[in-house]
Amino acid sequence: MATFFAREYMRPAEAIGNTEKVLGGFILFIVAAVVAAFVFQVATDRDYLFEVDRQAYTPLPPIEATSPFPAPGLEGWRAPEQVDRFTAETLYVKIDGRAEAYLKFHVVGLTFGRYCHESDTGRTVDVYWYDMGTPSNALGMYKSEEALGAAPVAIGRAGRQVGGAVFFRKSSSYVQVLPSSLAEADARAALSIAERLAERIKE
Amino acid sequence: MADKRLTRRECLTRGAGAVLAAGAAAVGGYLLYDPEGDAGLLKLSDSNARLNNYFAEVDFPASNPRVSIATGDERRIEQMVRAAVGGLDPSLGIKRFVVKDDVVLIKPNVGFDRPPYLGATTHPEVLRAVIRLCKEAGARKIIITDNPIESPRACFAKSGIRQVAEAEGAIIVLPERGRFETLTFRDREPDWRKGEALGRWPILYEPLAEATKVIGVAPIKDHNLCSASMNLKNWYGLLGGRRNLFHQVIHNIVSDLALMMSPTLVIADATRVMMRNGPTGGRVTDVIPGGKLGRAAVIASVDPVACDAWCYQHLLGRDPAKLAYLKLAHEKIQDRIAAGHRRFGQFSWKIYERQGLIVTTSV
Fold first, then answer.
1. How far, rounded to the nearest angstrom, does the alpha carbon of residue B252 sit from its chain's CA centroid?
2. Strand B265-274 relative to strand B213-223: parallel, antiparallel, unpaired?
3. What is the value of pTM for the model shown?
């Protein structure tokens, strides 16, 4: 039997069974139905394909919330744009020669960020946020570096301020907030940043 | 249909072509093969860099002071530097050490991204005074370099070193990859049990190779690992690679550095001395002007070992006899002097004191 393209079927039409014919017809019907449904949907309800599921959509948190460092809370200062993280193994990269003192107290890691003054890039407040693993390790490290004659401040546990720099511990954290100068304005900035940071650290 | 059977000629031609193609692929693969892989990217040049003796050309009279201390007010840093250097040679001053057209490398300690008031880095005003002295002596070029592990740009900026160098016309050489060469300090593996640390190691060689004179300008600091960071430890900043490996043998490496580097002059910056929590510090109460001396000071010396011993005792208030790297450095340098090298390396500053080779000036 000749076909549409002048080729011959593999089998003569008499050799095709009724069951095969019914199944073939059914498959053709399903394919045609799928195509028809698709064409109908696209032609009549295109926007539906691009509609956002408001229920499932959760807005991304603002950048401030994803950074470990809070907003400085002072006009003219901006929060760190870059956050550097160091593990116990890489701590020497940041505090070469001093890292071993922290390793003795089983430091887990250091998170470093720099607050910058918007009009004077030379004015900065550096935050060294050490995760000491446990509160007792944080206490041990904090006490080992404790400054003589430092003024107590109500930040974290046993917060101290000396020469504008603020030091405190809270939970397993030991935090150093170091301004770039001894100027009073920079000391105020360090204090404000330390307060906000301490609020963020959970007991 | 025509007979398409392969002829003998075609068979040989196609066979030869296939063999040639396979051969070309093999040769190409061989040429492109990189046995080191990514590790090759980190490999430093396989040179046989050697360091000069930067003191060798200094015509230094034996009777001249070896250690010169200038004390004074913190606001008179330049005068202190001038007085300290001048004390080593009252007639020529800096011109005893730096002559016209010299290329002077000044090596401050810029190891940390910390502001000057914390005393973790060389005071920028001390550096400024040294640059000015070199310029007055006719130096053709003044290079400032160091290899901090932290971001070099950040360290040079935060410490105030960059600003001073630029203002005074000195050239900052940052520790970029191409500037390192492998120094063969020993042709064999170092024996750590014998106080050795360096074998072959990358150092910041390019500026050293260009320099005709080298001046170290180091702050005096407490150090968590080796008790004190002073003139000898300052050369650590010339090392490249994973130098934290040397922390296990810190006294060996500092004494090896003392042997490796024979500077023209060293200047200890004791305008503020870090008495505790070193080498990073962090509290203004960690630093005291002049340390135990009680007054800001600058110490110039042609003998880095004696200078460190003096500083360790008078500024940090500690016993030099207990500082292992000083003793090791002394022994190593004495061996070198016995072999004919021209340099100083006296562990006991008291010997110089008895010989009248230590002078003190107040400005």
1. 16
2. parallel
3. 0.80
Say if CB B238 and CB B258 are below 8 A apart.
no
Residue B244 in contact with partner chain A when CB distance is under 8 A? yes
DSSP B58-97: ----TTS-SEEEEEE-TT-HHHHHHHHHHHH-TTTGGGGT
Measured CA to CA in angstroms, residue B38 lies from B29, B30, B45, B179 at distances of 17, 17, 15, 20
Residue from B155, B236, B167, B173 nearest B210 by CA: B173
Preferred mutation among B234, B249, B285 to probe A, highest tally of A CBs within 10 A:
B285
Can you tell me the distance from the alpha carbon of A8 to that of B327, in angstroms, rounded to the nearest whole number? 102
**Hey, what are B228's tokens?**
């004190």
Q: Is the ipTM of this complex over 0.85?
A: no
Q: What is the pLDDT of residue A6?
A: 61
Phi, psi of A190 (to 5 degrees): -60, -40
Between chains, do B280 and A95 touch, taking CB under 8 Å as contact?
Answer: yes
Binning chain A into helix, strand and coil, the percentages to the nearest 5 are 35, 25, 40
The residues facing B265 across adjacent strands are B215
CB of A88 less than 8 A from some CB of B: no
Q: Looking at domain B51-362, does it have CATH number 1.10.10?
A: no
Domain ranges of chain A: 1-58, 63-200
pLDDT in tens, B318-347: 999 999 999 999 999 999 999 888 999 999
Which residue bears the tokens 């070099």? Answer: B152
Q: Which residues of chain B have pLDDT under 70?
A: 1-4, 35-48
Q: Do A98 and B280 touch (CB under 8 A)?
A: yes
Per-residue pLDDT tens digits for B169-222: 999 999 998 999 999 998 889 999 999 999 999 999 999 999 999 999 999 999
Question: A63-200 adopts what CATH topology?
Answer: Protein Transport Mog1p; Chain A (3.40.1000)
